Automatic annotation (TrEMBL), chain A:
<keyword id="KW-0479">Metal-binding</keyword>
<dbReference type="GO" id="GO:0030976">
    <property type="term" value="F:thiamine pyrophosphate binding"/>
</dbReference>
<dbReference type="InterPro" id="IPR029061">
    <property type="entry name" value="THDP-binding"/>
</dbReference>
<dbReference type="GO" id="GO:0006082">
    <property type="term" value="P:organic acid metabolic process"/>
</dbReference>
<keyword id="KW-0560">Oxidoreductase</keyword>
<feature type="domain" description="Thiamine pyrophosphate enzyme TPP-binding">
    <location>
        <begin position="51"/>
        <end position="198"/>
    </location>
</feature>
<keyword id="KW-0411">Iron-sulfur</keyword>
<keyword id="KW-0408">Iron</keyword>
<keyword id="KW-0460">Magnesium</keyword>
From TrEMBL, chain B:
<dbReference type="GO" id="GO:0044272">
    <property type="term" value="P:sulfur compound biosynthetic process"/>
</dbReference>
<dbReference type="GO" id="GO:0006979">
    <property type="term" value="P:response to oxidative stress"/>
</dbReference>
<feature type="region of interest" description="Disordered">
    <location>
        <begin position="436"/>
        <end position="474"/>
    </location>
</feature>
<dbReference type="Pfam" id="PF01558">
    <property type="entry name" value="POR"/>
</dbReference>
<dbReference type="InterPro" id="IPR050722">
    <property type="entry name" value="Pyruvate:ferred/Flavod_OxRd"/>
</dbReference>
<dbReference type="InterPro" id="IPR002880">
    <property type="entry name" value="Pyrv_Fd/Flavodoxin_OxRdtase_N"/>
</dbReference>
<dbReference type="GO" id="GO:0006082">
    <property type="term" value="P:organic acid metabolic process"/>
</dbReference>
<feature type="domain" description="Pyruvate flavodoxin/ferredoxin oxidoreductase pyrimidine binding">
    <location>
        <begin position="210"/>
        <end position="455"/>
    </location>
</feature>
<dbReference type="InterPro" id="IPR009014">
    <property type="entry name" value="Transketo_C/PFOR_II"/>
</dbReference>
Length: 287, 587
């Protein structure tokens, strides 16, 4: 690992095809800066991306990466980290990827507390398929497939995480570059599963949850006398549907990551040319 | 061939049937006798009935037969369920003091041995040992030295303390002496022992052991009958060898975790059965197009949908060959015996890494749950070879960089095989994707590159066809006019059927195929034969269809899809009938 890594080292030579003004630009910049700031370089970093506009991030970043199947990014990241505890793993996807098709994996990834970072680029819309309701869309948000709105409450990802035993829950806003980077960085440094939902506005298909909306309504927890280690305070923030927040909402200081719980600390890519030593013991067990 | 001996214990689910049967099988194995077991969940009446059957001989046994010599019946139903396998002189051991067994009628010509199992067990230290009392009684009936049972009891209960072991030994002896004292009859059985050392294991265990031997470090799975034993075997053991087992939230997750571990550079595997294969098919194409080495074990059971979860079938062949949208290169291995499950697992890992694609390692319910004896030499760990294929390190990575300096995991090579760089390799960073991609793994829709990448992936398969040995296993009479072809677990029953057919003067040549894709070309063999029959456990003849297409001929078929494996005597009858009529024999 070289000490002079710049965040631009994490940029690939592919130009993003995101719409001009898309929130994902800022989200990605913050991720790259956080990785560089925490002493990582592209050769020891593995990025897993989902499917959707957000899923393109694996193409635009430079690192070891897998751009997988819709909704299954977290299991892939889990496998990478278990096999390679020495590698920094960051998983990125959208609100559809994480809270709809991949919702089951989200709950269980939170429970496992694998030491990796999960960044959800939440724009409250399906953008790549040209504007259908997502699991975080508002109840009355009208789209081509929900002409009168979904008429269902949006998923509260932070509540889902807290209920699943999360050890790190945060919210950021892609346009607030400095705070976004700081929050991602805290997630990377967290000993366990660092979950950050990022408001990453879609300028093309969502005219409700806009930059202006978030700028006007966001309360920064860093300035609101919030103690993220206080579970009840975190619960109050998460269940407060009147306000939008940014910052670290909850962090369990006693988090024990999966690899410590299970003693998984070996680089599994290194194996001998033949059967492992003492493999004959396995045969003897069958006498 | 020495006379074989067929024994069973049967009762209700929850009666401890499995563990009782396993102890007896273990005792026989320890005594230097060959053993072949089967678990009978098959009820002719209603659910809840279960039996563990053991066939044993001093010679190798590799099939079940329609014959039962000694039956421990814990319920009246156990007798009813096995009436067609019991014969004149069969011995039925039962507890006449058990309420449900008080009025039991022993069929005419058979010998009922009424042993107060529960009472004797209580005297030895607890009613829970009543099945062990029955095992002691069985030892006396079969003239089988009870010391062998002691050794199996030590293995089973040793970690729970000497007291428990001693109580069980006492319980067994109580059963033995009760029969000796109360039944003066001379039984016709005399189970001789030998000095041979055998190991006793089932197909799932052989696959699990093969995975560890091959250097598999990561296993993720979701419980499903009949593949769960692979995961149970690996749990704790894989950790002893520096690996890890994860129980995933579903099969979608299981295959994606394994994919992640494989991208990390580990040898990774998942195992499941049909319903899980359906789910894993979602990610299967990604594994193939990202050129990720992965072993996916499919322990087949009866389908479709939930089907008959505890019944035999070989119905997933088409799915494994063709499942998934688009055109997906893959290998399909179909080990034909329990010991070959071990070696084909090792081979599956090598093939997956050498050709960087998903490999289906296929077993079926019969093979998965059958405990069979082998010489320990059948699993010679010194003979295990690990070939990781084309992997670059910090030094060699630079030979595979593009002009702009990017690593090329999908480099267009003559044999189709590109370099792999594990995370951490300096300058090896690259993206893998389910999108069509260029040599560096970057998305492309360029028409030329699309064609080049598709051709490259398929070229790997052609390379493998040339470089690897895909031969079938051959036995029987090599000059015979009649050819029987099979795949998967039918081999054992077929091998024994040959002996029976030989008695009728019918010579057969057998080709047992452990590779369905790529597979051996059997055209010449079929042309040289007067008659060819393909034997398999499905209705549509999925393998027979492939053979017909390969050789451009029609073959006869023997198909079984009632949920029960072929038995040697049944298969001999079917083959004889098919040869006589020359038309398709159907179930």
């Amino acid at each position: 690992m070289s000490s002079d890594v710049r965040f631009t080292d994490f940029k690939s030579d592919k130009q993003p095809t995101w719409c001009p003004g898309c929130g994902d630009f800022g989200t990605m910049n913050g991720m790259m800066k956080a990785l560089a700031e925490t002493g990582n370089d592209p050769d020891n970093t593995f990025v897993v991306a989902g499917i959707g506009c957000s899923g393109k991030i694996g193409t635009y970043m430079h690192s070891y990466a897998l751009h997988g199947v819709h909704g299954r990014a977290l299991p892939v990241g889990t496998g990478v980290k278990m096999a390679r505890p020495d590698i920094e793993v960051m998983v990125a996807g959208g609100d559809g990827d994480g809270y709809s098709i991949g919702a089951g994996h989200f709950v269980h990834a939170v429970r496992r507390n694998v030491d990796m970072t999960y960044v959800v680029m939440d724009n409250r819309i399906y953008g790549l398929t040209k504007g259908q309701a997502s699991p975080t869309s508002r109840e009355d948000f009208e789209t081509a497939t929900t002409p009168e709105g979904p008429k269902q409450p949006p998923v509260n990802p932070h509540a889902l995480a807290l209920a699943s035993g999360a050890t790190f829950i945060a919210q950021s806003f892609s346009s607030d570059a400095l705070r976004h980077q700081e929050i991602i960085q805290e997630a990377v440094e967290h000993d366990g599963f660092g979950f950050v939902n990022v408001y990453s506005p879609c300028v093309t298909f969502n005219d409700v949850d806009t930059y202006d909306y978030f700028r006007d309504s966001l309360v920064d927890l860093a300035e609101a006398d919030h103690d993220p280690t206080d579970y009840d305070a975190a619960k109050d923030v998460i269940l407060d549907s009147d306000k939008e927040y940014q910052g670290v909402i909850y962090q369990d200081e006693n988090s024990v990551p999966y690899h410590e719980q299970h003693g998984v600390d070996e680089d599994m890519s290194d194996i001998p040319d033949g059967a492992p030593e003492n493999a004959t013991d396995l045969v003897r067990e069958f006498y | 061939m020495a006379a074989d001996f067929n024994w069973a214990v049967g009762g209700e689910a929850g009666d401890g049937i499995d563990s009782t049967g396993k102890i007896f099988a273990q005792a026989l194995s320890r005594s230097g006798r060959h053993v072949f077991t089967s678990k009978d969940f098959a009820s002719r009446i209603r659910g809840g009935y279960t039996a563990y059957k053991v066939r044993t001989s001093v010679d190798k046994v590799q099939s079940v037969v329609d014959r039962l010599d000694v039956l421990i019946a814990l319920t009246p139903r156990t007798i009813e369920e096995n009436l067609d396998e019991l014969h004149e002189g069969s011995v039925i051991i039962y507890d006449g003091e058990r309420t449900t067994m008080q009025n039991v009628e022993i069929p005419e010509g058979m010998i009922g041995i009424d042993v107060p199992l529960k009472r004797l067990a209580e005297e030895a230290g607890g009613a829970i040992m009543r099945n062990v009392v029955a095992l002691g009684a069985a030892c006396e009936v079969a003239e089988f030295p009870i010391e062998n049972l002691d050794s199996a009891l030590e293995k089973r209960f040793g970690d729970k303390g000497q007291k428990l072991v001693d109580n069980n030994k006492e319980a067994a002896r109580a059963g033995q002496s009760y029969v000796a004292e109360e039944y003066d009859a001379e039984f016709e059985y005399d189970l001789e022992t030998t000095d041979e050392d055998y190991v006793l294991l089932n197909g799932d265990e052989a696959i699990g052991m093969g995975a560890i031997a091959a250097g598999c470090r990561f296993y993720s799975g979701y419980p499903i009958t009949p593949a769960t034993d692979v995961m149970t075997y690996l749990t704790g053991r894989l950790e002893r060898y520096g690996g890890h087992v994860v129980q995933a939230e579903d099969e979608l997750s299981a295959i994606n975790m394994a994919l992640g571990a494989a991208r990390g550079g580990a040898r990774a595997m998942t195992a499941t059965s049909g319903p899980g294969i359906d789910l894993m098919t979602e990610t299967f194409g990604l594994v193939a197009t990202s050129e990720t080495p992965l072993v996916i074990c499919n322990v087949m059971r009866s389908g479709p949908s939930t089907g008959m979860p505890t019944k035999q079938e070989q119905g997933d062949l088409n799915h494994m060959l063709y499942g998934g949208h688009g055109e997906v290169p893959r290998f399909v291995l179909t080990p034909t015996t329990v010991d070959e499950c071990f070696w084909k697992t090792v081979e599956a890992f090598n093939l997956a890494e050498k050709y960087q694609l998903p490999v289906y390692l296929t077993a079926d319910l019969s093979m998965a749950v059958t405990e069979q004896t082998f010489s320990p030499d059948a699993f010679d760990m010194d003979a295990v070879e690990v070939d990781r294929g084309f992997v670059v390190d910090d030094a060699s990575v630079e030979e595979h960089l593009s002009e702009s300096g990017g690593f090329q995991p999908h480099e267009l090579t003559e044999d189709g095989i590109s370099p792999r760089a594990f995370p951490g390799t300096v300058d090896g960073a690259h993206m893998s994707t389910g999108l069509e991609h260029d040599e560096q793994g970057r998305r492309t829709e360029d028409t030329e590159m699309r064609v080049e990448q598709v051709d490259k992936r398929n070229r790997k398969v052609e390379t493998a066809k040339e470089r690897e040995d895909w031969s079938p296993r051959e036995f029987g009479d090599e000059d015979a006019e009649n050819l029987v072809i099979t795949w998967g677990s039918n081999e054992g029953a077929l091998a024994e059927a040959l002996d029976l057919l030989d008695e009728d003067g019918i010579d057969i040549r057998v080709l047992s195929v452990p590779y369905v894709f790529p597979r051996p070309d059997l055209t010449e063999d079929i042309e040289a034969a007067d008659e060819t029959i393909v034997v398999e456990c499905n209705e549509t003849g999925q393998f027979a269809n492939l053979i017909e297409r390969d050789a451009l001929v029609r073959v006869d078929r023997i198909n079984k899809y009632d949920g029960v494996r072929f038995k040697a005597d049944e298969l001999a009858r079917e083959i004889k009938a098919t040869l006589e009529t020359g038309t398709e024999a159907t179930q």
